[in-house]
Amino acid sequence: MPFVHIELIEGRSKEQKENLVKEVTEAVVRNTGAAGENVHVILQEMQASDYAQNGIFKG
């Protein structure tokens, strides 16, 4: 039962997220042999102001 966690900066449309989840699920099925109904994809969105890289906030 694969779980895929994806963290994103907010701002993508519902359609973009639906396409991402569909394609990630297909990739996991193709590469692990797991059944699609057993693949769990968790999207976690954050504000740009809550994200820093190399000690510098991006938002």
From TrEMBL:
Residues 2-55 form the 4-oxalocrotonate tautomerase-like domain. The active site is at residue 2. Its EC number is 5.3.2.-. The keyword Transcription does not apply. Gene3D superfamilies: Macrophage Migration Inhibitory Factor. InterPro entries: 4-OT, 4-OT-like_dom, Tautomerase/MIF_sf. Keywords: Isomerase. PANTHER family: 2-HYDROXYMUCONATE TAUTOMERASE, TAUTOMERASE-RELATED. Belongs to the 4-oxalocrotonate tautomerase family. This is Tautomerase.
